[in-house]
């Protein structure tokens, strides 16, 4: 491994600070919780996580916290992601590949509409808003 320069260390520190900031709850009202149990990771949750982070950055969203959790008990539809947005029902999406992660950010977080074809913990019909 090559030696790191002082500038390399500064860049690494800034990158890690940015990564930690994404997990902070302070001043943020939207949560994305990615299932990162063994089943989720085997199904591609790391790719989904990276897609969520990239899509959030691309959309310029600063009020989103991204966290990881263990198995959500929905192993048959991994990777899974729980989305919590004020004014909307908490929703668990399944089969969340990179494209679906980007769609969730664009549709659920930005447009405030559910991504119907990936909901696996469906909210009660009387709380769904279109």
Summarize the SSE layout with pairings.
Elements: H1 6-23, E1 30-35, H2 38-43, H3 45-59, E2 64-69, E3 81-84, E4 91-93, H4 98-110, E5 119-121
Parallel strand pairs: 1-2
Antiparallel strand pairs: 1-3, 3-4, 4-5
Helix pairs in contact: 3-4
What structural category do the secondary elements indicate? alpha+beta
CATH fold group: Glutaredoxin
Helix content: 40-55%
Distance between the termini: 53 Å
What does the overall shape look like?
globular
Q: What proportion strand?
A: 15-25%
Give the strand order of the largest sheet, numbering strands 1, 2, ... along the chain. Answer: 2-1-3-4-5
* Radius of gyration (Å): 16 Å
Order of helices and strands: HEHHEEEHE
Oligomer: single chain
Q: What do we call the CATH homologous superfamily?
A: Glutaredoxin
Number of domains: 1
Using DSSP, what is the number of strands?
5
CATH architecture, by name, is 3-Layer(aba) Sandwich
Q: What is the arithmetic mean of pLDDT?
A: 88
User: Which regions contain 5 or more consecutive residues with pLDDT less than 50?
Assistant: none
Question: Which CATH class applies here?
Answer: Alpha Beta
**Sheet bearing the most strands, described?**
5 strands, mixed
Count of separate DSSP helical elements: 4
Q: Would you give an account of this structure?
A:
The protein has 130 residues and is an alpha+beta fold. The chain contains four helices and five strands; from the N terminus they run αβααβββαβ. It has helices spanning 6-23, 38-43, 45-59, 98-110, and strands at 30-35, 64-69, 81-84, 91-93, 119-121. It has a five-stranded mixed beta sheet with strand order 2-1-3-4-5.
